[in-house]
Amino acid sequence: MAKVTFDKDLCKGCGLCVKACPKKIVKLSDELNKRGYHPAQVTEQDKCIGCAFCATMCPDCVITVEK
Amino acid sequence: MSEKVLMKGNEALAEAAIMAGCKHYFGYPITPQTEVAAYMAKKMPKTEGGVFLQAESEIAAINMVIGVASTGKRVMTSSSSPGISLKSEGISYLAGCDLPALIINVQRGGPGLGGIQPSQSDYFQATKGGGHGDFHLLVLAPNSVQEMVDMVFKGFDLAEKYRMPAMILSDGTMGQMMEPVSLEKGVVNEYDKSWALTGTKGERKPNIVNSLYIAPEELEKLNFERYERYKKIEAEEALYEEYLMDDAEICIVAYGVASRVAKNAIDQARAEGIKVGMIRPITLWPFPKKVLSEAADKVNKFISVELSMGQMIEDIELAIRCKKEVLLCNRTGGMITTTEDVLNKIYEANGGKN
Amino acid sequence: MVVFEKPNALTENTLHYCPGCTHGIIHRLVAEALDELGVTGRTIGVASVGCSVFTYNYFNCDMVQAAHGRAPAVATGVKRSDANNIVFTYQGDGDLAAIGTAETVHSAARGENITVIFVNNAIYGMTGGQMAPTTLPGQKTQTSPYGRDVQTVGYPVKVCEMLSQVDGATYLERVAVNNVANVKKAKAAIKKAFQNQIEGKGFSLVEVLSTCPTNWGLAPEKALEWLEENMLPYYPLGVYKDKYAEEK
Description:
B: 2 domains, C: 10 helices, 18% strand
């Protein structure tokens, strides 16, 4: 089963991962992180296919993907 | 003492650099320093690990120097006045990055394209700046082909000791003239180079060679530290030669080719009974302030003999705190002061012939 | 099993780039290439001036900071100091294609065995969005507020096309990081540019079309679209020169 982890406080909320996700499960949180951004997160982890598209487009190495 | 050979100043200097273990030279053609590049082009490929590269510009050449210097290796470039202006950016970066390197300026007349005849009009540029920011260059001023050789070893040694760029401020006369010279290997000591970029090999943290500090507190701190180093250099490394100063009433201050002319004039004036001597700065930065300041208590007048519009004279006046009058004896634009010019100035300082 | 994580050749320092700036992706691709080729320990990077000025904080290898435009000359010195060094420059468009044009062309002409990563985002980012040598005709910037008027300021410089005429250049490719497929192609090109150096093949340059959401005045995902619609037609992707492929 695929697992995607976001290092919340590294995220700048740019949303490039949101756009890249083929399953549309990456969303920006309503909450703010330490740096004042709305960090990206995955709410429906079970739908993740571990394609790492989100991580590929992330400019800040926020995302780790396991499969 | 090794046997003497007859050599041109520029070529003797280049040979000395190779003897000093400099295996990288980057240059660009400009008169009157081109023999240095030509000599390096001939010799470097025959030297083990030797690299000669003619860059696309003086700017590129000095940046190649920065590249080699950042790896901790001995490196040199040479140029003449307009070319040194182009190198000034890189010289500032060398200083800001605390990198040792040797830069040769075989001076010609300026400003602008100026001329190709010998001059000393880059004194301000060499001693007061040579680029933007708070920094100094070590500046060595040879007055013979032999010193062109000796200063190369001294220059590399001081540059590496204090991690800063050094300049040999020569001129067209020194570069072009031939004299007997002893090519004896001078001393360049080995200093710590743990800062050098040699690849981490996965065994240490990355080394960074950089001159950018966005936080003003940090930049100020580094500049203060660098100036502490400069203070030590001023206290310990100033070099000069005294000539007939024991009983002198008039003190000539001259460096490089001008000091040779001055010496002839002093000998003639002495023969006429005028008590004149000379303090010849061998390092222009650090400037030999102490010996000049002491001389100011003994002599009546100073004469600055220089091939520029009165540049070094300002340092003399500062060194002696204007205690005594300093006369200027100068030619410029590629013209050389004659013995007669200096002699006449000595008479003026003496209040006429004896 | 971890299938994607931060490469070891990047330090723990947080990138200073604006949200959505694709510099971060390109940094990661360079780091992945160094990791995969196993050369980080003998790599010396040359930082330039512009937004990428702080790259020396981000790569886990020895780094030297060069003056504006001079990175290829500094890299030449580093490489000539020891041929075993793997040397790369990381330069923006203002640095490489305006103030550093001479250093770029001549390091290519000499066939310096170095790798040049050229980030083209059609604008000066660090100084706040001025017209770059690669700013598109009609593109509005702080110093071309009515749009780049080619009648008065001329045309953008197409670096890969220009260098393809230089005999000394070995490998020139233009890539983009606007989507996953292109990022993967960019990675392959960057890795090849380092591989060439390891094999002593000479000068390799990868031009990476990148975004500047802040100075383009666009949201990050809109900036990717702007790149696709405006930059890709003017700066076609592809291999502009591959000396060794031609010889096969």
